[in-house]
Amino acid sequence: MEDALARLKKGTLKLYALEKELPPEDAVRVRRTFVEEERDADLAALGAFTIGIDRVVRRNIENMIGTVQIPVGVAGPVQVNGEYARGEYYLPLATTEGALVASANRGASAITKAGGADVRVVRDGMTRAPVFAARDVVHAKEVADWATAHFADLAAAAETTTSRGTLLSVAPYVTGTSVFLRCAYDTKDAMGMNMATIATAEIADLVEAETGARLIALSGNMCVDKKPAAINLIEGRGKTVVAGVRLSDDLIQRVFKTDAATMVEVNYRKNLIGSARAGALGFNAHAANLVAAMYLACGQDPAHVVEGSSAITTVEATGDGVYVAVTLPAVQVGTVGGGTGIDTQAACLRLLGVAGGGEPEGTNARAFAELVGVGVLAGELSLLGALAAHHLARAHKELGRG
Q: What is the DSSP letter of 374?
């Protein structure tokens, strides 16, 4: 290791090449020591971790120097009445924001007291949208029409790349001489971006060969990946999840110290009017908080919080209380691949009973998506209740966020 460190300092060995010469843990230690000495920084805390890194350095990260640990709490138990997730669950939440787990826990308690949250996945399709250049607008229309007429050929090409993924649809969009083909896939228990990208490359080759259009980029930003976009809010991306619960007047008073009419008005004026006035793409109280906390705990790509937070919260008055629902059009999750195999994240997936591939395929990822929806519902209920009762500032102060 001393020789490797000396060679790094001389410039004859590159940081990224350490794993080719040393076992993973030694490579990480040498790299961290080198950076510490180069920048006179104490990075010892990054070197304390429990995860096995042999897989991590091959599949999850480059130039690893250690880990950053995030506290994980649980909210629950919460009763879930889903199509794929049914029963009582403790939801793992990774966060550094004081009051978040307590808030979600209060919402989970209300849901359970009410008999549980109903939740469904109403649409499922991971998208990738290449952009092609046509000669003129007539050619652009011909390319779009060809793609529509030859869906079976495109599906066959895509499915040569995967034994699990299935092409569900191809939606063409023409802008001048640019042609976008928004391809949607069933990716089973994988989140599916790699699967969709590789399959779409085969589709692009076929489109070029058959239409004469030129592929400009395999992603033309109409997918839309990790960016706020109305198309994801409208058409969905990944899994579209809806979760709802009926709360009685008595339960609202006991748990949230407010009443149904006030919760309805807070949601109307804050989540609906306020969001519309701000030009927001999400109409919710703090969906991103719960999406981020569950994604981090369970090995999901945290950048997909962008799409996951484009949620709509509705509160409707009933005869004896309210019906509160959340709609999440773009929940991009998987239970295999990516960060799901890291030890600590896999443990959280096991806590939920959704680790690995489901039987039949796809059921674990859909169950996890339902649990994310219920987690968001719990968070929305609690924050709306706190705002309605004017308890928000007090709760944050008591839980160390003053």
A: H
Q: In degrees to the nearest 10, what's the CA dihedral of 228, 354, 47, 293? A: 40
**SS3 of residue 385 by DSSP:** helix
Give the total residue count for the chain: 402
Nearest alpha carbon to residue 53 among 31, 26, 34: 26
Percent of the chain exceeding pLDDT 70 equals: 97
Render pLDDT for 292-331 as a digit per residue (tens, 0 to 9): 999 999 999 999 999 999 999 999 999 999 999 999 999 9
26 is catalytic: no
- Exactly one of 97, 186, 259, 361 is catalytic; name it: 97
Distance CA 19, CA 36 (A): 19
User: Which of the residues 159, 301, 316, 361 is marked catalytic?
Assistant: 301
**249-256 vs 100-113: helix axis angle to the nearest 10?**
150
Q: What is the C-alpha separation between 326 and 285, in angstroms, rounded?
A: 10
Nearest to 357 by CA among 189, 126, 165: 189
Query: Is 210 labeled as catalytic in the residue annotation?
Result: no
Contacts for 149 with CB less than 8 Å, ≥ 6 apart: none
Give whole-number Cα distances, 284 to 199, 291, 310, in Å.
35, 12, 8
Return the structure tokens found at 354: 């959704």
Residues 6+ apart with CB under 8 A from 251: 110, 113, 114, 321
The question of whether 249 is a catalytic residue gets the answer: no
Distance CA 18, CA 118 (A): 50
The tokens for 193 are 């971006």
Cβ 93 vs Cβ 101: under 8 Å:
yes
**How many angstroms from the chain centroid is the CA of residue 211?**
35
Task: List the domains of the chain with CATH numbers.
Answer: 2-59 (no CATH), 72-124+240-398 (3.90.770.10), 130-217 (3.30.70.420)
Q: Which amino acid is at 119?
A: V
Give me the sign of the Cα torsion angle 378, 379, 385, 391: positive
**Residue spans of alpha helices (H) in 127-248:** 137-149, 151-159, 193-211, 230-235
Question: CB under 8 Å to 6, separation ≥6 — which residues?
Answer: none
Give percent of the chain above pLDDT 90.
Answer: 96
| Cis peptide upstream of residue 172 (ω within 30 degrees of 0) | no
